[in-house]
Amino acid sequence: MRTKRKQRLIFIVILLVGFSCAAALGLYAMRQNIMLFHTPSEVNSGEVATDKLFRIGGLVVEGSVVKGNDGLTTEFNLTDTMDTVEVRFTGLLPDLYRERQGIVAQGKLNDAGVFVAQEVLAKHDENYMPPEVAAALKGSGAPHPDSIPKSSY
Amino acid sequence: MWSFFHKLSSPKYYYEWSGKWIPWLGGITILLTALGVYWGLVIAPTDYQQGESYRIIFIHVPAAWMSMFIYMVMAVAGFIALVWKTKISEIVVSECAVIGAVFTALALITGMLWGKPTWGTYWQWDARLTSELILLFLYLGVISIHSAIEDPRIAARAASVLAIVGIINIPIIHYSVTWWNSLHQPNMELVSESPSMHPSMLIPLLIMAIAFKVYFGWLLFIRVRNEIISRERSTNWVKKLILAS
Hints:
The complex is a heterodimer of chains A (153) and B (245).
Chain A: H1 2-29, H2 31-34, H3 40-44, E1 54-60, E2 66-67, E3 73-79, E4 84-90, E5 102-109, E6 115-122, H4 131-139
Parallel strand pairs in A: 4-6
Antiparallel strand pairs in A: 1-3, 1-5, 2-3, 3-4, 5-6
Chain B: H1 2-8, H2 11-43, H3 57-83, H4 87-118, H5 127-148, H6 152-165, H7 169-179, H8 199-231, H9 236-244
Helix pairs in contact in B: 2-8, 3-4, 3-6, 3-8, 4-5, 4-6, 4-8, 5-6, 5-7
């Protein structure tokens, strides 16, 4: 009976190790597809196949947002603090969209190198605090805890 | 310690032992949930960015934590069921699957409701969202194995293998936001010099997390007891118990 238990134990361990290796290899092979978005540096360095639809993520550059005459088109620069891509979007922006906000946009690069987005999503961060605390942090000169998509750098 | 676990693996002993805990777990659940909901929805301040909609966190995050915690309980029970073949651990696997599936669905639904106003979409095939959906399918798989195989002991063996293998998904869910670019925000840092959440919001969140844990224990004890009675209905001690009541 004892040796039987031991056999079952070894069987489970081998099963787990085998499946873990398979899962790790599978995820490693698919890592490009699992990435929800690419950063502006990746796009500019040519790592991304830009002839297809893809998503780009980063921070909206302060002072770069220009509203079009039709009231629906917005142009802004998107940065990952190292590189910048110009984005144009026609449509309704999410409530959390604003300067220095992390966003994810889906679309295509046009010939002029402008990313024409079909969809813009706001990315949220993991910081939660009352407005007074946020104001105090801003006043003290500490880095403002605005949405920085940390995981992408 | 070991002799206690050994005794606990006897259905009759487990039945009597868990009976003493049930009223306590129930009372603590109701108290903590009332406190946590009131603190979270009424006392806690609004968020500087999201306003009131962030309050869904008091359900969403504890439910998401539970979905992973219950899976780990289920996998450990499945491990014990495969190696030592104790009846109680087999029952725990099947009952955990039902409760865990509900918590996972709750986490997914509350996340979607929050995602629409915050991100601008209900669903994206993001690493975190997708791996949590796979967790739901794993739970549903364990449930369907139990309902597909008539003999509960054979069903338990198949279900336990699935439960153990599926544990690989738990670290994937946890680290999905670190390993890959995702729409979902990174994990909160709760234990650090500057925690991601202000204490006025963190305390009710932790109260809710404890309330959910105790609630799970309460529910599990009740469900396992019911299943014991149903499976052991032909034994003498259950007959005596029914005659006595």
